Amino acid sequence: MNARRATLADVAQAAGVSPTAASFVLSGRGRQMRISEEVVRRVRAAASELQYRPNNVSVSLRKGITRTIGFISDAVATTPHAGTLIKGALEAARERGNLLFIGETEGDQELERRLLQAMHDRRADGLILTSMYTREITVPRTLLDTPAVLLNALPKQPAAISSVIPDEITAGREAAAILLRAGHRDGIYLLGAGPGEGEWPPDSVAAVERLAGIGQALAAAGARYAGAFGCLDWEPEDGYRATQALLAAARPRALICFNDRLALGAFQALAAAGLRVPADVSIVSFDDDPIASWLKPQLTTLALPHYELGRRAVDVLFGGEDHPRFSREALVHRVSMPLRERASVCPPSSLDLRRSAEPDRQCRAPGSGSDRCGASDGEVPVATREIQRPDNQEEGCPSVGAVHEADEARAGRDTATRATRNPEAADVAVLPWIDQALQAGSRRTRPPPAQTFRSGVFVGCVHRDTSCGLRCRSFN
User: Fold this and answer.
1) In terms of pTM, does the model score above 0.85?
2) Do residues 139 and 43 both lie within one domain?
3) By the 8 A CB rule, do 38 and 47 touch?
4) Quick one: which of 112, 187, 262, 417 has the most CB atoms within 10 Å?
5) Nearest to residue 253, comparing CAs of 184, 317, 315?
6) Cβ-based neighbour number of residue 125 at 10 Å
């Protein structure tokens, strides 16, 4: 049988004082009530010896405060990527002497209603209603019966409740700025969202705000994106298919992927097409999913600040007070998304820059009598230009020092030679590390097999269409 729990009366008797005096000391009001230092010392010593703990139930009944916060999410609690969001809220609550009660709805509206009722029945001091991804939600009416905050969500209809979300607009601006600083102004394509209605996942705030930020940064620099491929879902296979569609119509210089899982699919599609990241196509993304650091080269991305979001939600709920408080202000608190600058972005190659400067140049078939790109029969143009490489740029990026395009020329000749000698051997194998990551990270089917190239000559165009946006041709 468990030992009897020490009471306030036990502490008072051991210290030789009245229960009232012991209560004043243990509640921190001893000095206010002019209790001597000697009595304070005796009471605290007795409480320590008896391992006295206040009866929180009686304190709650007396003060109307339970020191508990309800945390209800759709899928955050069982999603490893966002575990630090709960950690941030837990630590912020613990620092205030509060417990966090966690419940998950799995998207079930009836379960959400019952969980909210359970939190009310247990007299939680405040509630945090959380979404796995930043989106608009319908605010349950009962949520407004107690101090509450939306985390990673905005209300669909006007409601007297504050929200804490990532600063997606600023992150969108930064994603575009990364490419602009690297020298990209043309051939920038978006993967995941487009300007048309319905060209992004339903209710996605992240898609809308990232798109707005990207557009603002490009417009401020006098540039614009060349095209956008919207996706109703943001999984690796969606990125793979969108990149395949893009390569069938144009030759991108840079991609802004709306999350890292789309970027994984883009990496794979580019590899299947014989294109290198970042030497041929730079990529910047969002979220800083674990996938981002598994890719080779590692992916430059804007990180979702999960831990900071969780902490900020508790801060907003308390509003600087000792316990959660009602606020009729519907404020949106934005938390900055830090840049994880890695190795998937570099300046456009000198060959690309020359083509951008002379848009009317057109490659013709070797032996046609007028090779205006300067390449002799069976060869690929070679160009040299001074471009400075960022300190963190990987070797193999065409911007290293005085850039000579011999590597690109060799890669082109090798591809053409393989295709000419044995068309079936020209298949570009999917890199095993991407294939493994895709199988580990996606719950869906694997993407289509790698594309086969049977072009007799490779002159910078990576698809089998008769021409691309750069007016280069691949001849069968």
Assistant:
1) no
2) no
3) no
4) 262
5) 184
6) 21
Q: Within this chain, do residues 198 and 288 fall inside the same structural domain, yes or no?
A: yes
Amino acid at 47: A
Domains in the chain: how many in total? 3
CB contact at 8 A, 422 and 216? no
Mean pLDDT of 82-109: 89
DSSP type of residue 457: B
Asked if pLDDT for residue 411 goes beyond 50, the answer is no
List beta partners, residue 2.
none
What is the three-class DSSP state of 377?
coil
Does 360 map to a domain? yes
Residue 47 belongs to some domain of the structure: yes
Q: Which amino acid is at 347?
A: P
CATH of the domain at 266: 3.40.50.2300
Give me the amino acid identity at 4.
R
pLDDT at 359 over 50: no
C-beta separation of 416 from 457 below 8 A: yes
Residues with Cβ within 8 Å of 237's Cβ and at least 6 positions away in sequence, in order, are 265, 438, 442, 444, 445, 446, 447
| Residue 294 contacts residue 242 (beta carbons within 8 Å) | no
Q: Could you report the per-residue pLDDT of 436-465, keeping only the tens digit for each?
A: 433 444 333 333 333 322 222 222 233 333
Q: For residues 83 and 134, which has the higher predicted lDDT (pLDDT)?
A: 134
Q: Looking at the domain assignment, is residue 458 inside a domain?
A: no
The Cα–Cα gap between 336 and 470 comes to 37
